Amino acid sequence: MYYLRQRTRVSGPFSADQIKGLLHRGRIARSDKVSTDRTTWQPISETPELIDRPQPSEPKPAEQPSEAPPRDARVWYHTRGGVQQPASVDTETLRHLVQSGQVGAAEMVWTEGFPDWQPVSSVPDIAPAPQTPPAYPAAGEFPPPQLQGDFGPGLDLPPVVRKKGWL
Q1: Residues near 127 by beta carbon (within 8 Å), at least 6 away in sequence
Q2: Of all helices (H) and strands (E), which one includes residue 118?
Q3: pLDDT of residue 56
């Protein structure tokens, strides 16, 4: 059984499976500390029995070279509206969700290798590309505006201006 310390709050006891579930759902972070005796604390990330590690798979036979670029096989967890979503997604799907605006730049994401949840905007692999403002036209690209009426030396202003007493 484990006790959990988040900042100054201690809770528990929890089983290893309960800690893994809280971690998976984003309720706790790998940097939160656990203890079995409520005296000695260590980060969850340094407690191997609480961190799911992928099991080594059997070696695959050499694959024939393909013309398609290799797919990013990472599995991502993300939030929407500050709530962790129950299903994981692959990198391509997460990029689509970000580009379509369904997952905003301030939402949080996590994948294997991250010490903790990160904002989408800080993860270059999935962050939306910065929007480039349209270029200003070069000088002389547009003709000068054509004024209507005679605004020459006598400043023949339209009658509305004269009636308002602006001059």
Answers
A1: 98, 105, 120, 121
A2: strand 118-119
A3: 46
Domains of the chain: 2-50 (3.30.1490), 75-122 (no CATH)
Q: What is the C-alpha R_g of the chain?
A: 30
H/E segment holding residue 89 = strand 89-90
pLDDT tens per residue across span 73-122: 788 888 888 888 878 888 888 888 888 888 888 899 888 888 888 898 88
- Residue 41, Cα to own-chain centre: how many angstroms? 31
Cα 19 from Cα 8, distance rounded (Å):
18
**Residue 115 corresponds to which amino acid?**
P
What gap in Å lies between CA 64 and CA 116, rounded to an integer? 37
- Cα(167)–Cα(164) distance, rounded to whole angstroms? 8
**Cα 77 from chain centre:** 11
CA–CA separation, 76 and 112 (whole Å):
8
